[in-house]
Structures are given as structure tokens and as C-alpha cells.
Amino acid sequence: MNIAVFVSGRGSNLRAIVNSGILAGKVFVKVVVSDKISCPAFEFARSKNIDTLTVSGKNTPDTVTYDELAAILNENGIHLVVLAGFLKLIPAEFIRKLNCKIINIHPALLPSYGGKGMYGMNVHNAVFSSGDKMSGPTVHYVNEQYDEGAIIANLPVDISNAKSPDEIASLVLEKEHILLPEVIYDFYLNWIDGN
Ligand code: GRF
User: Fold this and answer.
1) Structurally, how many domains does the chain consist of?
2) Residues contacting residue 188 through CB under 8 Å, at least 6 positions apart
């Protein structure tokens, strides 16, 4: 099964996918897409000889538009798009033109702590202030609203001993690296069934 992974920064989830034992020899990251010209996730992709593409709303050299990107992904037989730390809202037109599903990983237990502005440390700061005892990543389908597509899976983690938002972030990130490859593996099993 071929996937495209969309990133904006660090790329630790991309690494978890590429290095995952359960996905090895079954799921192939064909291309890594970013809204940035360069980011650590791109460097990692290039070190693994994975193609990279920058998507831009603007007509900037060396970038593709969302329309062009949808056509490239469709033509290259991508079976699933995985947003792993991609911060831009995906245009509705791109979702319509793409022939496959899009999933996203969010660093909190949706439907709480989602929506516009709820990304990165904003999420963990809000969870810490709330005094919640549990947090954890959620993987969901992407639709035209931030974090509102159907929930696929989550992985709760006890944060009652966490003393800062940073501690919550690292507890949740550890679970992200487990959950995201597992969900992709489930898509792979479904894909095999249909082929
Ligand atoms: C993760 O916390 C993910 O849940 C969120 O953005 C972060 C990306 O981290 N959507 P990384 O780039 O995968 O390290």
C-alpha cells in the first residue's frame, strides 16, 4: 500500500511510520509533502530517499498547487494520505479531487481540545490548565473543518502525575508513535481485503 505523509516540522511521526516494524514491507511512504520549503521532516525523508514536494497556494518556484498535488497523488497510486503534524487547513477542493482518504493525528482526545488554533503546545497547555487526568492522541478522518472528521481511534494515557504541559506533550507523543502506525496497519489490512 502506498501512502503520502504531510508534515510541517519535526517529523517524529513520519519517522515512526518509516521505522515501524508492523508496516515494513507492506506500507510504502512514496512522498512526503510539506507547506514548507525545508523542515527537519524533509531532511529525514531525503535521507531515506523518499520524494518530497512543497505545496503552496502561491505560484512559487519549486512548489505545486493543491490542484496539481491532487493530480500527482492520484496518478501515482497513493492509497492513503496521512497528515502527521501538517498545520495548514486542507482545501475542500483538494479533498474532493483526491481519490483516497485523508487521516490526521491530533495530540488530544477529540472531540475535546480540537478546532482552529488547537495545535502544538496550545493543546497541551489547555489540557494542563483543565486539570484533566487523561489525554492521548486521536486519529480521525479529515474533512473540511479542523479536527471534525469521524474519529478512527485514540490511545488514552494517564497524565495525572504530569507537572507541566511539556510533560503531557511527551507522554502523548510517545503514544502517537504507537497509534499512528497501528491505524495505518488497519488501513493496510482493509486495503488487502479489497485487492
Ligand atoms: C504531533 O503532536 C501531532 O499530533 C500534531 O503535530 C505534532 C507533529 O509532531 N498534529 P511531529 O512533526 O510528527 O514530530
Assistant:
1) 1
2) 1, 23, 26, 27
61 phi and psi, to 5 degrees?
Answer: -55, 150
- Domain extent, residue 157, equals 2-194
CATH code for the domain in which residue 54 is found: 3.40.50.170
pLDDT in tens, 58-83: 777 789 999 999 999 999 999 999 99
pTM: 0.96
Closest C-alpha to ligand 1, atom 1: 85
Going from the Cα of 13 to the center of ligand 1, the distance in angstroms, rounded, reads 6
CB 137 within 8 A of CB 154: yes
Q: What tens digit of pLDDT does each residue of 123-132 get?
A: 999 999 999 9
Output Rg (C-alpha) for the chain, integer angstroms.
16
